Amino acid sequence: MRNDSPSQIPFTVKSWLKPDAVLLTHLHPDHWDQAAVEALDKSLLILCQPGEEAAVRKVGFTDVTEVHESLTYKGTMIFRTTGQHGTGKIGRLMGQVSGYVFKAEGEPALYIAGDTIWCEDVKRVLDEHHPEYTLVNAGGAKFIEGGTIIMNEDDVVSLCRYAPYTKIAAIHMEAINHCFTTRADLKGRIDAEHLTDQVRIPLDGEWF
């Protein structure tokens, strides 16, 4: 594990913390932490994966819906997808994780892959939904034992080769101390593979 501190967001929480709804991929603390629980309005709509409604309600949220397959929210279709949060024993211990595909009339489809490595689940989503944009957690996180539990530079390249039509934004990098793939690592690999037109690596707080 690295000893450096997490990245700092270059604006205050209050400046953006008025969402229409919150979509949870899973409840691991690097995605759903105590600070978020305390800061969010408890009447806010929370969409979560199957089996986690009770845990979200337990901390005070009153409008919680599990997304089993799909639902429509304000004219946008939201499809829940599956992933693989590691392999072997580590993967089993990490438990269920979800991603989501967003589709709205007249808008490009967006796939948020969530905490997953490159695997058959991801391939199936790409084949079924053919998203114009794909958001991947690409920090190459891993523990002392076992392989990576989210995508690394090899996985991102594999995704690019498999689905050259989708524009990729690589995030969840340099944010927690067991992420070993840095922005510089990924940029170097993407440059070497001549994939710079397909992959964007945003800075902390960058909008695009």
Automatic annotation (TrEMBL):
Origin superkingdom: Bacteria
| Pfam families cross-referenced by the UniProt entry | Lactamase_B_2
Q: Which reaction does it catalyse?
A: 3',5'-cyclic CMP + H2O = CMP + H(+); 3',5'-cyclic UMP + H2O = UMP + H(+)
Q: Which residues form the Metallo-beta-lactamase domain?
A: 13-173
Task: Please provide the record's keywords in A-Z order.
Answer: Hydrolase
Key word GTP-binding present in the record? no
Q: Name one GO molecular function term.
A: hydrolase activity
Presence of the UniProt keyword Hydrolase in the record? yes
Known function: Counteracts the endogenous Pycsar antiviral defense system. Phosphodiesterase that enables metal-dependent hydrolysis of host cyclic nucleotide Pycsar defense signals such as cCMP and cUMP.
Report the protein name in the record: MBL fold metallo-hydrolase
Q: Look up and give the organism this protein is from.
A: Paenibacillus dendrobii
